[in-house]
User: Fold these one by one.
Assistant:
Number 1:
Amino acid sequence: MPCPQTIGNIFSKKIKKAFDKAGRLSHNEYMSNRLRTREEVTMDDIAFELGISKSTVSRALSGTGRIGAETVARVRSYAEAHGFRPNLVAKALAGRKSLNLAAVMPIEATAAQMLFYHECLSGMVQRAAKDGYNILVCMTEGSNPEALEDVILNRKADAAILTQLKHNDKNVEFLRSRNFPFVVIGSDSSGEIVQVDSRMRESCAEFSKICVSKMNNRGNVLFVCGSLDIEANNNRLSGFLSAMESVGIEALRYAVCTDVSDLEGEKNLSDWSLILCSDDVVCMEVLRLFRLANIRAGKDVLLASFHDSVILEGATSPVSALRVESSALGSRAVEVLLLMLSGKPFERENFVDCSFQFRESTERLAN
């Protein structure tokens, strides 16, 4: 005697055949013998109701294959009206996809630096979720690709986002050797890497000129830079030097300090009219040295940063800074990756907007 499951299948087929001739069953009637709710619509259901094949439904929903616009519209309209949600797990398995994007972050980042990465990550997560993807955080030490190798070789992610680009970055070399899709937040001079940036060089140059104008184009300017092993700092330095060269004022003197620790014990910090910092972390250290030397930012020395954060905004003398929406960088990086994965056209250089936030630290100088 056939098992109940077999009887159910035969009964279902007989019902379909009988009612196809006399007028189709309503969706509820057809579903009643399958122990599922109305919301659990499948591609089989859509195909049956619209009188087309399951493969046609699949191609119409995915946008692949040669399907007429009218059929595509009918399928998508029905799917939306009946709350159809694709089985992402099955889709991933069929296409050998993990539905994960790896966000590669430096494990040596300080607590203050993690503010930037947290904002980037927030933008990534929100944008990835719209396409059914998750963000897998991968912490790497320096530019050692060991942790990244584990993610890629074990197929834990379909593509990667490098949140920090270093000079001669080994992570980049590894990703290229594996022909693995990736995007970098930041930019390098080669122009060969798919990147998302804020036009760092140009923005820093313009911001520097405005800050210099606030000291009446006279006096001494010091740029305190973070590690030049990080490409972002090279871009900031390039922008600063470009601005100083283009100003071309004899009464203006400038210098570069590539390590903020070199200023420790410096007794003549007040000799500088303007100090520009590569980022908020460096700027916080300069503020500490100001307190030790009893120097007032904005009153004794103008102070500004090429990267903004809530810490600088909430300082005793709020610090002027170049603001880039870090979440927008993360979101845009995911958008570009999804275009790459879908085989659609994408730009190699992608940019997000930035703004200049002028606060007390550049608004006043002592008479």
Number 2:
Amino acid sequence: MSITLGVLSDSYRRQLRRLKDQPVIDVVVEKVAAVARATDIGPIGIDFGVGALPSTDKIYLSELKTKFADLNMVPTVIIGTLGLHADQDFAGPPIEASIRNLEVANYLGSPLGLFYFSYGGRVKREGRIRIAVEQIGRLAEAARQFDMTVTTENYDFFTSDDFLHIFEQVGADNVGLHNDTGNWLILDENPLTATRKMADWTYHAHVRDYRIVDGVCSSVPIGMGDVDFPSVLAELRKAAGRRDRFVMAVEMDMDVGDAAAEDEAVLECARYMKKWLDTQG
């Protein structure tokens, strides 16, 4: 077992939305490197999407891979978003793009291809589950040529029971979850209970805390919200014992605040996780 602490690029989303000329990945690399220096975390994970790259040309990817190695960074790559839509004009292009992006993720050294879902097209729950099973099956089969596992995140629609059903129906051994610890609250699930339930299927974690106010899950630094982190982290540690590599990437998703506030919040999360990991031996 090897636990690596990291940072999800979307933690800086308020700043990244305002970028004009600078590639997203360049900003994220700078910020994650700063977190590593401030906390003495190393190696440090860096989670980002293929869409953050200015190019997927092999020369550029080779240079980026060298930069990761020089900075002692462990990349985990988001390959895309699958459209759970009955109309193939909408559902087809996203999965084709995600399959293509597996090669990019593999080249950069990511053993996982992270993906998400979008919804639309008058499809009921059972239809979304059926389409998800079909699309994940295609993605998992394509990932086998790279010896990769594909994982999705709990967010806003599918429950832990839904995921168990979907993964079992796919029937592939390279499919699973990247557990977002806070997002279970959006689904009205207990993060500890859901984390335990999904342990056998968990390959990665986005470690995030929320404080629920007036029906809104507001992102706060780890340990300041409604997630029982000592218990949840203990369960994630057990899940990590099933994997050769397990990254716990911190995540913030602030609704307000400037760049300095966003940077400090991410740093607070990293400090919390570094202190926790140091106590694990």
